[in-house]
Please model this.
Amino acid sequence: LTYPVTDRSIFTLAYGVYFQMPNFSYMYDGFNTDRLRGNTIVGNPNMEAQRTNAYQVSYNLQMSDDFAFDLTAYYKDIYNQVGIRYFRVVPDNYQEYAVAEYGSARGIEFTLRKRPTDHIGFNINYTLASVSGTSSSPESNYNLQPDPYTGRVTFPLAEFPFSSDRRHVVNAILDFVWGNEEGMDIAGIHPMENMTISFVNRFLTGTPYTRQDRKGNPVGEFNSERQPSFWSTDLRITKSFRLKDWFGESVGRTSFQIFADVFNLFNRTAFTAVYARTQDPDYDGNTLNRVLGDFSASPWYKDASLANPTTFQATQYDQYGERLYRAEADKNGDGVVTQEEKYNSYLNYVKDVVSFRSNYQTPRSAFFGMMINF
Model:
């Protein structure tokens, strides 16, 4: 329903009911299998359609010939979402996909726009949103811990923030635009003509996660912690050359364009995520925090020898029959990898993983290109 309040403002109200069948993989994977293993998730072809009730109200105001303001608010009730149902049976327990979860999404969005006049234009957008439910994904409640008193698996009944929930998002785009024969004049030449310089700024708050102890067990409420917030600025420069200025009107509106993209212009390298066990961006408290005693004291030998029966025992081979010995771990080159050498090789691996900085913002990067527009 759209109602023009004035000749420069519009009020819009929308309501919809949407249905969607679950993916076939959730309906048929593992269904009718001959033998179940423990905690198998089997498909369920009898699931009903997922349903969403969506409400939206918006107000659009043309403040002047150059400025416009938009306000949008929405709310969604998400019913019959795919989740898991647990069955305790003999000889093996199993789990089945079922439309058993609920979620909701709500938010409000503000946008202020200025069209490019006097060589300057911008678009500023702010979104305040919340997404919550009883399961972030169909497998989120897989392998939950049983109740210590009843021994039964307890599924969440109250809503919690989804893992994709991001409360605050700000996008600000600032454009500097020059048309044909515009910009500074140097001896009759306009170096800025047909050129655009755009700055794209983003600020995002962190997404939720569940804190864990050193053994990986949940601590506190589900998704009660938040990853850190971060912001970044990207730059894009484009310059077009009209081919008709060189070859005449026969080429029409064809133009040649060169462009440059610079991501993370200010080279911000703050961390954007932490590990659930340690709340640290570098060390996960598990695979990156092992000690010498975690490695077998049995050495790995380069070659099998009848003179030393240990060299051809099962402990010298992996599951594919390949020898576990690695030359890069054999620091002294004597054909034997000791426990200490295993540990030192592991420390080198940790150093490589940490230096990759996967939980940090990507450093500044630049790309250049060209294209022809017809």
